[in-house]
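**Entry details**
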Amino acid sequence: MKILLVHPHDIFDHHEPWTIRIENIAREFVRMGHTVKLIHFLQETSIEKHTRHPYGFEVISLRRRGEWKRFMKNFREILTEIEWADIVHFQKCFHYVSLPVLFGCYKFRKPVHYDWDDLEEAIYETSAHPPSRYIHFFLNTFERILPTMVDTVSVASAELRRKCVSLGIPSQRIFNTPVGADLGTFNGSVSGERIKKRFNAGGKLVVYIGQLNGAQYTHLFVKAVSKIREKNPHTRYLIIGSGSKSRDLQELAKCLKVDDAIMFLGALRHEMVPQYLAAADIAVACFEDNEITRCKSPLKVVEYLSAGKAIVASAVGEVKTMLEGCGILVKPGSSDALAEGVQRLLNDDTLIETMGLLARQKAEEKYNWPRVAKELINAYAVALGKKKSIALEMNGYAKKIVFKEENSSVEEIKREEIIV
């Protein structure tokens, strides 16, 4: 099968880690014997031209911003690749991807699959400074209608599935594809000793990984550290990630007098993350309970699972399903509850070990990229079947009209069409 994947962000920029999803899906398709092309959109600072990804698929790099001429140039290039493909899969609802994909699939009668993994409009509202009402309007409008304009939809959470059902999409066209982890990269054989020595972690090491912006709620972790500090003075804490709230979080740590215990490492290249997780005794994922968090399928959580970590996380949305029976779930939005969960693990080495084993088992059973890729292939089969069925119906209708023209008057044909 010839599969065209289209993603609105830069797969080679480590400041956009969410592209890991589309990269790993492409890799799994190649392993399954499919031919894959991936169109992505470079950051303005990216200058290197990539044509072949190490995973074995072709990469087509376009620019995401610029004048109208650039948009039209990208539009034409996307159409060329759509004509080549058997199926087109696009992620997120940004106009410079969704518009050419929908037009091209309609023009060439190609099946199209939409990968819905986040509530983009709500995320934009919390992260843009200041938000544009035009972009807000477009994201809000398209996010509501895109699932109804495609052949099949994959959703990263039960909440997004409910939204699809409320739009009237038949359940057989909706496929569950929560985020996955690379079981080979994140595993118990990775050594974290070098990281432990670097941070002089004579006690335990607690790690948080994620973007530092308004939709991640990292301040809950910083506040929790201030509550744990007195009972566990030798525990050290790492915050890995970057974002608009980074400076504010460092100031908060100073105000709470825990800046000597928390190390802010900034964004790391993804290939470095397994070493830091290997060094950790406990991994944390904190959220508030709102529409954004109920819809998402957090990458950090599945990578914690795959690394075999004892996890403390807020009980919200898909996280509750991910950590059921293998992690400590606490009240969302509460730094007190988060502190209590971490404290419970810090006092029980046996529980840390047991939860780590259960976490790895959960990743192997459910939250991994091969499983996600297989479910997407099932979705493509439905989309291809739907398009084939429509084509056969149209062909049959055309033959019916030709037969009528040979045996009936034009007026009779028109009357029968009106009745139909």
In short: Residues 193-367 form a domain with the Rossmann fold fold (CATH 3.40.50.2000). The first strand starts at residue 2 and ends at 6. Confidence is low (pLDDT under 50) at residues 397-420.
